[in-house]
TrEMBL record:
Signal peptide range in chain numbering: none
Pfam annotation, one family: UDG
Species in which this protein is naturally found: Streptomyces noboritoensis
Metal-binding among keywords: yes
The protein, known as: Type-5 uracil-DNA glycosylase
Amino acid sequence: MDEARGTEAEELSAEPDDPAFPARRAPRCRSLDALDAQVVRCRACPRLVAWREEVAATKRAAFRDWEYWGRPVPGFGPPDAALAVVGLAPAAHGGNRTGRMFTGDASGDFLFAALHAVGLASQAEATHAGDGLELRGVRLAAPVHCAPPDNKPTPQERDTCRPWLAAELELLSPGLRTVVVLGAFGWQALLPVLGAAGWQVPRPRPKFGHGVQVTLAASDKSRPPLHLLGCYHPSQRNTSTGRLTLPMLVEVFGEAARLSGL
């Protein structure tokens, strides 16, 4: 009994700058609001903390009048979402500035235009956290919650942050039917999480590709299967070169909405 209490006390006393903070805190969260409150406290990755705070202090000239968020960016969307969208990480002058996932940058403009086109977002633009945007049956999530230098988290940073995503999907799991993964990084980060969360991931693991669709059976037969869809990330590089067009993105979300019953 005393040993059990000691372990629990150790978990609760984990400081935000402890590398074990996500692993100790995330599984104890019983709601998405509680999870989000812990996410924004996290300082487990020194390189990411230094970068996000440096960007928030120096700013971009176009946003010099903004007070940057400069903290981890939590997920966004209703707690009963049937569809999750998993990206990569917040943009330095997007989510790291506005405090909301995919808000305030070109990638977000592209993403929300597509979600709005299929009826999953109340408006086609996302400029700041208080702009009135509402998502319908969709939750935006990410494997990494802090803006990384050059948009490239390290494998260690991805793994340290993983418990937040695992807990988020676990909390969504009663109603979750579909996940759209934006880009290969998110795909590779997500598959181990889904396997640990009770979905059967095939061996060898399915490879990422735009339009790839995989149905994962649940280990618990009382739970429905999960539909996994791959989609190119709406980065400026992909959208400016035509690798990903708005009709392509609308098509993916239209299929995701159908599979999710939205």
